[in-house]
Amino acid sequence: MRRVALAQKSYHRFVWYLKVITASLTIIFFIKIFVMDIYKIPSISMQPSLLKGDYVVAFKIPYGIIFKSLPKKGDMALFKRSEDGTYYIKRVIALPGETVDMKLGDVFINSKKLKKVYETDSKKYKYVEGDYVVMKESNADSTYSVMQSNLKMIEDFVRPYKDGPGGLFLMGDNRSNSIDSRTWGDINKKNIIGKVSFIWFSLDPNTGKVRWKRIGSCK
Predict the structure, then answer these.
(1) CB 77 within 8 Å of CB 192
(2) Residue of 155, 137, 153, 133 whose CA lies nearest to 145
(3) What is the C-alpha R_g of the chain?
(4) I need a labelling partner for 92 at 20 to 30 A (CA). Which of 9, 142, 152, 174 fits?
């Protein structure tokens, strides 16, 4: 009888653990599909805002679950390219139907130049190395940091580019070292997954040390 009681106890414990694990996996699956996703920054294309080794959270709710709402200019968006199935994070620069042009490193939206001012807080961008200059760029109601090399010139557009009816023009904040809509053309809004909102973890790929001060909100 004692063996039967122990067997029943073990069985009930197993069933309880199975229910907990199943419920946890269901919640995780639901969150990943409908609420948010986590992405590791693999390159320097989004410096100075995001560094290689940052882990960011992209919320899906701001852009809608069933009815896709349009991202705003200045948003950092996680998206998936249909052509190669790869996930990327870039900055939304222009919306459907708008025209983008580049001249001497400056961005023009519908022939209007985006305002840029030099960033003076060098401590804030101590992780940025090389001959780069950091600037604040203003686009509509959003202001964010971009950088470009003094040695590597940013190519002008041969002709202004106009986004399609459902297309968004996205660029990396590292204007001198980013493959983005300047190469691909616009990204269909249906491929936008979520809005990147904060850094939840950051690991220096060179030293293996945690960059605690980088954890928090990002723009």
Answers:
(1) yes
(2) 137
(3) 22
(4) 152
